Amino acid sequence: MTSAFGFWDYFIFISYALLILGVGLWVSRDKKGHQKNAEDYFLASKSLPWWAIGASLIAANISAEQFIGMSGSGFASGLAIASYEWMGALTLIIVGKFFLPVFIEKGLYTIPEFVEKRYSTNLKTILAVFWIGLYVFVNLASVLYLGSLALETIMGIPMLYGVIGLALFAAAYSLYGGLSAVAWTDVIQVVFLILGGLVTTYLALNTVSGGEGVIEGFKIVYETAPERFVMILDESHPEYRNLPGIAVLVGGLWVANLYYWGFNQYIIQRTLAAKSLKEAQKGILLAAFLKLILPLIVVIPGIAAYVIINDPEIMARLGDVAQHNLPSLGQADKAYPWLLQFLPTGLKGIAFAALAAAIVSSLASMLNSTSTIFTMDIYRQYINKNASDKATVTTGRISAGVALLIAGIMAPLLGGIDQAFQFIQEYTGVVSPGILAVFLLGLFWKKTTNKGAIIGALASIPIAMFFKVGPKGWSTNPLFVDIPFMDQMGYTLILTMLVIATVSLIQHHGKNDEKGIPLTKALFKTSPTFNIGAFAVMLILVVLYSLFWK
Predict the structure, then answer these.
(1) What dihedral angle (degrees, nearest 10) is formed by the CA atoms of 146, 152, 158, 159?
(2) Of 243, 363, 458, 492, which has the maximum CB count within 10 A?
């Protein structure tokens, strides 16, 4: 057994890379006599079918932070981290039912554009700057870092070269083709992503069972480490601070999920590019079903790696190669790359292509959305109000390139963080409660005013930072000093909504705001297909949580 790549591994991986680049550039080409306009570049000409939307949502969502970060969290804490995926499935249903109809009816390009229509240009600009900073300094940088970490661990490629290679690969088709190139290549990326992920899960469970198969392997893993299959952690668990018990179901995880799936440009942009609302809702439904199976390929391998490493007999069977890049509770993110080295020649190439697909598709999505927000909400608002289609598309490409350059410089500086998935959630959690409060009240409470929303959005950052660092300065009570970040997000959302509501009521004396959105039953009516699918997703979730509650 060897950790090195063989001929067929290189062949499969290079074939995958050429296929993605070829398809990306082919769908990006300008049709004869038609120059790419803003709708073509940023919204794929509003032509995406449901299956492309569903696949693209998952490809944009699943990145190195899931494959490497969630496997690392699976290694450290177990199946509890799967709540991000399973609760995400339920959140997608809510987004499809209640948020999408409003967004699509308003014909949006960007999420900040909704803010302008509901509130004001000033608030739109504040949030656009928020998002660009978050995408560049947290999301893009962390995906580049984790992807390069995988290349370094598996193939020995130095971090700097890994960052440059991944950045150039994502840029090669996404900067030229825009959302159309990103979405259509995502359909291929998802096939590699799921196939490669299942290959790694199969290998890990088959290794545990000593070649007796996946089912036997799962039984052994479950019997050996039952504590790793608890969904709701109690306060004595070392990972309770990251996944605080029942609050995962009824608390701050809703903030993370509703913000991410409902008001996050690089996710929602796919649904805005749908042929119709019904097509977008069917795509959301497909993504929800895929979310239910994702823990099988991003969490279970991490748990299996934990069992393997703690079993001297299996480790002896694996030989010297098993000692290379060994993960530990202190370096849990090494779990997934460590497993890949045991795959046989050929399958290693497929699994590595899956990891690359996850990284590159997310990079491309984030780049496209960063450039969309910058171009539509800042460039066309403040720099060139009468920009031609050619100038708009060119600015989109340049801004994506600049964002990628900054993120590439930042990426190596993230070295040393453990459980990167948790790091991303924690720092996104400083910004997301305020943005979520502004959107929820803007959508569903007609009395919300622009002034209330601006004061609430600005106040949410010091509120979030108070819960993050403030209590340590004045209290010795562990209840206050070490508030789990998920609870911090929940408290921040509630307090921000109170600030917005108070200012709005004082300003308008309880009257409806003139820009309040009129909501009707007809707006939220969904098809029988969507309703049946949504019921099936909820039923499966009830069964899963019943099986793995404690």
Answers:
(1) 10
(2) 492
In eight-state DSSP terms, residue 203 is H
What sign does the CA torsion over 400, 402, 403, 408 have?
A: positive
Alpha helix (H) ranges present in 106-140?
111-118, 121-134
| pLDDT tens digits, 325-346 | 788 877 787 888 888 878 888 8
pLDDT (0 to 100) of residue 352: 80
Hey, CA dihedral for 477, 479, 480, 484, is it positive or negative?
positive
What pLDDT, in 10s, does the model give residues 495-531? 999 999 999 999 987 788 888 888 888 889 999 999 9
Lowest mean pLDDT among 214-218, 385-389, 393-397: 385-389
Q: Half-sphere exposure of 188 toward its Cβ, with a 13 Å CA cutoff?
A: 18
Buried b (16+ CB within 10 A) or exposed e, 193-217: bbebbbbbbbbbbbbbbeeeebeeb
Q: Give the C-alpha separation, 60 to 76, whole Å.
A: 25
Residue 417 has a pLDDT of 58
Phi/psi at 48 (5° precision): -75, 130
Per-residue three-class SS string for 177-200: HCHHHHHHHHHHHHHHHHHHHHHH
Give CA–CA dist 256/352, Å, rounded: 29
